[in-house]
Amino acid sequence: MMTPERFKHYTLGIPELDNDHWELFEILNKLSIAKKNCNSDYSSILKNKFVKLFNLHTNREIELAIKWRFPFTEYHDSSHPTLIDMLYKRTKLSTSECLSELDVSDMINSLCEHIDKYDFQYVPFYKAWKEKHV
Ligand SMILES: [Fe+2]
Ligand SMILES: [Fe+2]
Q1: Which of 9, 96, 7 is nearest to 46 (CA)?
Q2: Which residues surround ligand 2, an ion (CB under 5 A)?
Q3: Which of 19, 61, 76, 123 has minimal CB crowding within 10 Å?
Q4: Ligand 1: distance of its center to the CA of 37 in Å?
């Protein structure tokens, strides 16, 4: 489960991205609840919602980062497709099956790791951009 307390550690201070991240975590929290009653229809709706929002979010993130003049590297560029690929492979993201508690917590941890390792790199570029544009 992603709690508001835990989320504080993964808050960038960039509202557009933080809102998306929180929404993604909320879907994962709901997936973990769906597992308790194993509702595969609900589970597949949530999974679709997650993938849609994830794609929307990564596009938004890249668009904003270009605006902030973030120096992309190939490594950084490939981190989103790598993350979603890994989620497909490691979890049952592509099926309507209910995820296990472990799958959901794996997904939450992978997203946390990504934010920690990659998304935090945007912060100084966002701040520098904001200083010039406020
Ligand atoms: Fe990212
Ligand atoms: Fe992100």
Answers
A1: 96
A2: 61, 119
A3: 19
A4: 32
